Amino acid sequence: MRSGTSSVTYTSYAFFAILQSGDPSAEEAPVVTVFAVCAVVGVLVLIASLVLGDFEIGGVEVGSSDAGLPWLSAPALAAAVGVFGVVGWPLSSGTSLPMPVIIGVAAGSGVAAYALLMVVLRAMRRAQTGTVAGLRAAVGTIGELSMEIPAGGWGQVRYLDSDSVRAVTTAILVDPDADARAGEQVLIVDVEGDRLVVQPLRTQD
Question: Residue ranges of the Membrane protein NfeD2 N-terminal transmembrane domain (predicted)?
């Protein structure tokens, strides 16, 4: 136990000694390891968060619009950690730059990556929200099929959006066993994902 504690103490002392002296030496190995771990873990967590979605902490989905923390996102945090490691790792192991400079460059790159990804993610969320809201605004209106809908399949419907602009989007029928021909008038009754659910007016009788 004493040996483990001494090792941690020595590593911490070496890390801060490097920061203060700026003198590259063999004692930089622990710092290089930190960069390497950040690079690997950051990239893996970024991939996982993009595939699985934002993480939940205490029942709150971090990064979602309902989390109350719009500036916090698991993919952006993972990107920041990963970029910090990816930039710092080669600089610390392959250059003679002072360690404080390397850490500063790596940290700045991580912050920049976080900010950039947050801008991209928030723009994507706004676009998705706007699309869903636009589709929901069409519910209750009449559209015209621009592409037939076969039984159990999908087609396309032409309708006027909330800005009175003619739009075309994917549509499915209320009754999956029915079909509808192109040119038929349909009532838009619901939204399912990014598709409109429609019912031919001829079935309203």
Answer: 30-128
- Name the residue among 103, 100, 78, 101 with its Cα closest to residue 89: 103
What is the arithmetic mean of pLDDT over 70-98?
Answer: 84
The C-alpha atoms of residue 91 and residue 32 are separated, in whole angstroms, by 9
Tokens of 176: 């999956």
Query: What is the tens place of the pLDDT at every residue in 13-34?
Result: 444 454 444 444 544 567 888 8
Domain range summary for the chain, segments of one domain joined by +: 27-56+69-134, 139-200
Rg (CA), the chain: 27
Supply 67's token pair: 């989390």
* DSSP codes of every residue in 13-76: HHHHHHHHH----GGGHHHHHHHHHHHHHHHHHHHHHHHH-S-EETTEETTSTTSS-TT--HHH
CATH of domain 139-200: 2.40.50.140
